[in-house]
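Exercise 7b. Backbone tokens:
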């Protein structure tokens, strides 16, 4: 089974909130299932975004899900959809790179950012999801702050992330899962292919 099929199966099994069907239908109209997860860092390859989303969900379920206190639907929403802001965000472009063996300049493909809706990272994902289905406060906080200290709002000295992590354990669980998926499970997954 491919990444998209796996994503859709988990989504349809776990997410039953009003508007979820419409959200999945909309997602299929975007490049979510073919886009990279980054320009050059992790899963910078075709299908990288859906692959990363599945990895984050899997880490959350394996390491942080407590059946006594956690909600499987919330974990699926957060893990699978935290980076929905990256749909329609990247484009393949080319640049000249010198071939060291021949000394010739050659056009090489690379991923570039083309952000048509520069609303921020986590908050953009929350906005896009809520166009279709209502998030619980813990889900919205988790998705908003999943970047942790890598978020531009934090670099300026915001205390909001600390309050979110203190009040919403789901936010901490999503952030830790995103870190593990990115830096431990997805190393060596960056290559632009045409």
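Sequence design result:
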């Amino acid at each position: 089974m491919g990444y998209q099929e796996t994503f859709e199966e988990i989504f349809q099994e776990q997410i039953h909130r009003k508007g979820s069907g419409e959200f999945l239908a909309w997602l299929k109209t975007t490049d979510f299932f073919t886009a990279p997860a980054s320009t050059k860092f992790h899963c910078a390859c075709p299908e990288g975004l859906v692959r990363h989303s599945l990895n984050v969900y899997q880490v959350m379920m394996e390491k942080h899900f407590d059946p006594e206190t956690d909600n499987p639907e919330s974990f699926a929403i957060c893990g699978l959809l935290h980076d929905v802001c990256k749909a329609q965000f990247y484009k393949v472009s080319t640049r000249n790179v010198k071939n060291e063996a021949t000394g010739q300049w050659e056009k090489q493909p690379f991923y570039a950012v083309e952000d048509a809706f520069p609303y921020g990272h986590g908050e953009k994902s929350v906005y896009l999801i809520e166009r279709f289905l209502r998030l619980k406060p813990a889900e919205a906080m988790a998705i908003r702050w999943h970047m942790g200290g890598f978020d531009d709002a934090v670099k300026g000295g915001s205390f909001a992330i600390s309050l979110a992590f203190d009040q919403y354990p789901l936010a901490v669980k999503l952030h830790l899962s995103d870190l593990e998926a990115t830096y431990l499970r997805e190393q060596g997954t960056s290559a632009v292919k045409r």
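Instructor comment: The beta strands are 90-98, 105-113. The two ends are 22 Å apart (CA to CA).
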